[in-house]
């Protein structure tokens, strides 16, 4: 493309760094016989009865648009489900909307809230889309680098220190991708106090809310005074192994939802219809599948943590999602170098922590959405690699 | 050991009987001794009835022949089916035996090396039993899946190698 044409591209977009994961994917996919622990999605197929509901929808010609906010039946099922899980009541007609994955809901929430120059405080390491979405919505991203010594939880001191008079939104995500960290009720209570005192809105990405292994997930929205000022993002990808169906949702205050639905209506129209039918089935009958998958992830989690202990690889205990975030700083190289060498020398793919924010430097993300046999082979390779590094 | 953990042990071993007690203990937050003891008890109670290996014999020799035989019988007395089952299951050629609902009574799976061998076994040992009214023998052509594991096609990860 000629320079004069390149000038026509949006500066906001061209200035965004491409995703570090994308770069790593391009390398990894060229390596034959590569064993991967690099994936951020379940290894389970979508449960058959849910797929069948999708097939049934196709067969009976449910191939038209739905209402912008999503099928009323699905919105009602989601509100019932969340009532059971969070103890909060949301109005299916006004306080929930169905999005194209949690991803779209994150983008739309930010766009509905931000005026140019508004600051958004968000925790890092985090999912790759937060910073670019904040920037594209005209906001100023203010990152709080979370610390390993706090088990990658957000502390009230860290939050206070990041706030300015321009802060409008706090974005959090627990259980966390990539660290696997969770926040428990006591942790959240202190954060909620500050949020209310400073009149902030919280975007809480709870896409992994079903996958916790210590105590049941607590949503910050369920704390006193927080429901109206929290936008909860959730979806079907992780809990129900439905990543490719592209379906998520947002819950929150009716006035905020109204604005979010406006954006969604103009940009997207509606979420995929077939997926919405499948999701109704997931909400109605998917609980036992979630329990089975959670149990399985938990077994793998314990297996993996034990392997790390055997390798003397320091890793804080992650109680959520399906990731572990071991510390590789002893090897004196960047996480990208570590991951690249591991890939070339042992054909094992993990994701460099730095792909999730600068403070992820010194860590790697290891996904345990893999069978025990795969984890075994992967840990054999990891062990060999680490031994060779230590022997030098 | 609590019932839930015992069930988890069974699920794990049913999928991979080569997991060690130590590995299972790690996955279930238990101790090696406790797992060993539970497994031992499960074996004694015949809840765990064996540890087998899933082999695709066709890759080793294609001589193996599997047949499914439907048997119709006339049971005598209250425990008639039980007594017939006892007789049939003692034949070493019989791999699997079910009592069925529907148009026939027993489903017998037999493995042999030739069609002839199986045919002789069916006529000589099953059809000749006095309770047996009729037999229908089907020979399997290709085995695609057993115990939830697909043969022939290697298991492949449908996901991309690295995703966010
Ligand atoms: C923290 C987090 N939020 C949101 C998403 C997006 O999920 P989806 O758009 O599939 O619902 C992901 C996916 O990896 C994630 O890890």
Describe the structure.
The complex is a heterodimer of chains A (392) and B (164). Chain A has 14 helices and twelve strands. Chain A has two domains: 3-45 and 288-386, Aspartate Aminotransferase, domain 1 (Alpha-Beta Complex); 62-285, Type I PLP-dependent aspartate aminotransferase-like (Major domain) (Aspartate Aminotransferase, domain 2, 3-Layer(aba) Sandwich), CATH 3.40.640. Chain A is an alpha/beta fold and 392 residues long. In chain A, the strands form three sheets. In chain A, strands 2-8-7-6-5-3-4 form a seven-stranded mixed sheet, sandwiched between helices. Chain A has a three-stranded antiparallel sheet with strand order 9-12-11. Chain A has helices at residues 3-6, 11-14, 20-28, 48-59, 72-86, 101-113, 130-136, 156-162, 185-197, 254-267, 273-285, 287-311, 335-346, 372-390, and strands spanning 35-36, 96-99, 119-124, 140-145, 167-172, 201-205, 230-235, 248-251, 323-324, 348-349, 351-352, 364-367. With 164 residues, chain B is an alpha+beta fold. In chain B, helix 2 (21-27) crosses helix 3 (32-44). Chain B has a four-stranded antiparallel sheet with strand order 2-3-1-4. A two-stranded antiparallel ribbon of chain B has the order 5-6. In chain B, strand 5 and strand 6 form a beta hairpin. Chain B is extended and about 60 Å long. Chain B has five helices and six strands; from the N terminus they run αααβαββαβββ. Chain B folds into two domains: 3-44, Orthogonal Bundle (Arc Repressor Mutant, subunit A); 57-143, Alpha-Beta Plaits. Classes of the chains: A alpha/beta (392), B alpha+beta (164). At the A-B interface, helix 3 and helix 12 of A face helix 2 of B.
């Amino acid at each position: 493309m000629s320079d004069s044409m390149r000038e026509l591209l949006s500066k906001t977009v061209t200035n965004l760094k491409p995703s570090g994961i994308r770069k790593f994917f391009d390398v990894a996919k060229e390596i034959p016989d590569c064993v991967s622990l690099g994936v951020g999605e379940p290894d389970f197929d979508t449960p058959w009865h849910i797929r069948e509901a999708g097939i049934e929808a196709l067969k009976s010609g449910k191939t038209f648009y739905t209402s912008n906010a999503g099928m009323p039946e699905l919105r009602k099922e989601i509100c019932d489900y969340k009532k059971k899980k969070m103890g909060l009541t949301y109005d299916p007609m006004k306080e929930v909307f169905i999005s194209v994955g949690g991803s779209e809901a994150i983008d739309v929430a930010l766009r509905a809230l931000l005026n140019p120059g508004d600051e958004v405080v968000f925790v890092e390491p985090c999912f790759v889309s937060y910073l670019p979405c904040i920037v594209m919505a005209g906001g100023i991203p203010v990152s709080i680098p979370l610390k390993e010594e706090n088990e990658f939880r957000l502390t009230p001191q860290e939050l206070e220190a990041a706030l300015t008079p321009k802060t409008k939104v706090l974005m959090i995500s627990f259980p966390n991708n990539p660290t696997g960290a969770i926040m428990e009720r006591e942790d959240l209570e202190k954060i909620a106090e500050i949020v209310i005192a400073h009149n902030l809105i919280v975007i809480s990405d709870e896409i992994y809310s079903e996958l916790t292994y210590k105590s049941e997930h607590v949503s910050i929205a369920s704390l006193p005074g927080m429901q109206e000022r929290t936008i909860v993002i959730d979806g079907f990808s992780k809990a129900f192994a439905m990543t490719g169906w592209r379906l998520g949702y947002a819950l929150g205050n009716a006035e905020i939802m109204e604005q979010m639905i406006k954006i969604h209506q103009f940009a997207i129209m509606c979420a995929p219809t077939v997926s919405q039918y499948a999701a109704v089935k997931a909400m109605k009958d998917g609980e036992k599948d979630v329990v089975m998958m959670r149990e399985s992830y938990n077994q793998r989690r314990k297996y993996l943590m034990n392997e790390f202990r055997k390798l003397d690889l320091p890793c804080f205990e992650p109680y959520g999602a399906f990731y572990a975030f071991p510390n590789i700083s002893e090897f004196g190289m960047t996480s990208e170098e570590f991951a690249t060498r591991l890939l070339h020398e042992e054909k094992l793919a993990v994701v460099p922590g730095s792909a999730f924010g600068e403070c992820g430097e010194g860590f790697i993300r290891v996904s345990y959405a893999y069978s025990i046999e795969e984890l075994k082979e992967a840990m054999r390779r990891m062990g060999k690699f680490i031994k060779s590094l230590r022997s030098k | 050991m609590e019932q839930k953990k015992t069930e988890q042990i069974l699920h794990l071993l049913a999928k991979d009987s080569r997991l060690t007690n130590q590995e299972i203990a790690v996955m279930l937050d238990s101790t090696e001794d406790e797992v060993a003891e539970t497994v031992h008890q499960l074996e004694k109670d015949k809840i765990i009835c064996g540890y087998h290996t899933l082999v695709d014999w066709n890759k080793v020799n294609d001589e193996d022949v599997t047949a499914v035989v439907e048997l119709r019988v006339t049971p005598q007395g209250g425990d008639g089916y039980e007594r017939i089952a006892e007789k049939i299951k003692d034949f070493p050629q019989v791999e699997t035996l079910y009592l069925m609902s529907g148009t026939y009574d027993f489903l017998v799976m037999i493995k042999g090396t030739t069609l002839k061998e199986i045919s002789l076994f069916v006529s000589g040992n099953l059809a000749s039993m006095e309770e047996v009214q009729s037999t229908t023998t089907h020979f399997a052509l290709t085995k695609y899946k057993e115990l939830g594991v697909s043969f022939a096609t290697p298991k492949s990860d449908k996901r991309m190698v690295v995703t966010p």
